[in-house]
């Protein structure tokens, strides 16, 4: 895995040409979280264990689709040009179990009847999504895919769970890819994906699926919420992201020392440091914003990408490594060149509603109008 | 000091910044201010070095001497693998 092999030079590549993001405006600090009681922890403890200081939280009535629509629209504005011909939404927290959230997001973005589907790979969702979109583009199945990663973990986290309550935040990021010359900034050069279902219980929500249906029984508190076995996850995350990163770099023919930008899934700053140290990535080439937004699951890499690009911290064309790890277990890495797109940001787009539904758990207060249906 | 113990001491000082005078035969990793994630990192590092699966849950609160014994035991269980 020394990067000695030269990757075959493809004639065409999937190139990131638009970057968008969306964050709920509400900031929840460690201090506020610990003041709420029940967690028996402190700001200092959370910082030392995770590197997290603040996270964003979606307001009541703001679901994943609202964040996804906003990030998707921002990415489309960043890209300019023709509309996308495929929408892929990576999420752990779809608006509903059925149907997928992506078709409605496509509708709200005015994208007519393009193929749109959700992808479930938990925190690896964005890397899986970009890898899949790249393969579909190179096969000719689409020409301009929009990949969105959006999460509302505040809807699945137990506020009293000391293992997870302070780790996660809400947010969304998105990219547009297009067919272009592999020498263009933003070109996806190599990908690596993997999974290990023998450890499927390390990160899970037990209840609400077909194995433990909501309707069949009263779920216990433990089964109702997202649960994570933190120490086992740490060890697996470090091993898998390191191995996967090496595999992607090997396929790209890049030595680790030539990587100018490293963005790992922002699970925990100490995991990120551990992986980057193992890969010998210089600290000045490591980027992220976990301190400000916490772990936003699938959205964490595109949010860090957008934040870093917005600050102009990496020259377009620099060799870039993205790596992620999540429930499943799943993991993946992408070797690409840093995009030249200027990121755009939108606050969540409230969902326009039709007639009020008595079954709706979140009564909508905004009247539906033609003008608001365009969001 | 045998090679295993010496290696553990070097790892603790070099990677985990434990002061040399805090590393005593009857000190535990917890005594040396390694928190639970640092103990996992310690176990992952040993796994990479020697391909042994050290139980990080048990490793945190046993003495350094006992930890070295545990590591030696795991190494000897590996057929065809010489202790470092």
Automatic annotation (TrEMBL), chain A:
**Pfam families to which the protein is assigned, alphabetical:** ACP_syn_III, ACP_syn_III_C
> Polar residues: which segments have biased composition?
366-375
The highest taxon in the source lineage is Bacteria
Region described as Disordered: spans on this chain: 340-375
Give every Beta-ketoacyl-[acyl-carrier-protein] synthase III N-terminal domain span.
117-197
Q: Where is the Beta-ketoacyl-[acyl-carrier-protein] synthase III C-terminal domain?
A: 249-338
Q: Which pathway does the UniProt entry assign to this protein?
A: Lipid metabolism
Composition bias type Pro residues, residue spans: 350-361
Task: Note the InterPro entries from the entry.
Answer: ACP_syn_III_C, ACP_syn_III_N, FabH, Thiolase-like
**UniProtKB keywords:** Acyltransferase, Cytoplasm, Fatty acid biosynthesis, Fatty acid metabolism, Lipid biosynthesis, Lipid metabolism, Transferase
Q: Which PANTHER family match?
A: 3-OXOACYL-[ACYL-CARRIER-PROTEIN] SYNTHASE 3 (PTHR34069), BETA-KETOACYL-[ACYL-CARRIER-PROTEIN] SYNTHASE III (PTHR34069:SF2)
Read off the NCBIfam families from this record. Answer: fabH, PRK09352.1
The similarity annotation says:
Belongs to the thiolase-like superfamily. FabH family.
This protein is called what? 3-oxoacyl-[acyl-carrier-protein] synthase 3 protein 2
Record organism: Streptomyces albospinus
Gene name on record? fabH2
TrEMBL record, chain B:
Annotated ranges, domain Carrier: 1-78
Q: What top-level branch of life does the organism fall under? A: Bacteria
**One Pfam entry name:** PP-binding
Do you know which Gene3D superfamilies this protein is assigned to?
Answer: ACP-like (1.10.1200.10)
Protein name according to UniProt: Carrier domain-containing protein
Native organism: Streptomyces albospinus
What are the leading ranks of the lineage?
Bacteria, Bacillati, Actinomycetota, Actinomycetes, Kitasatosporales
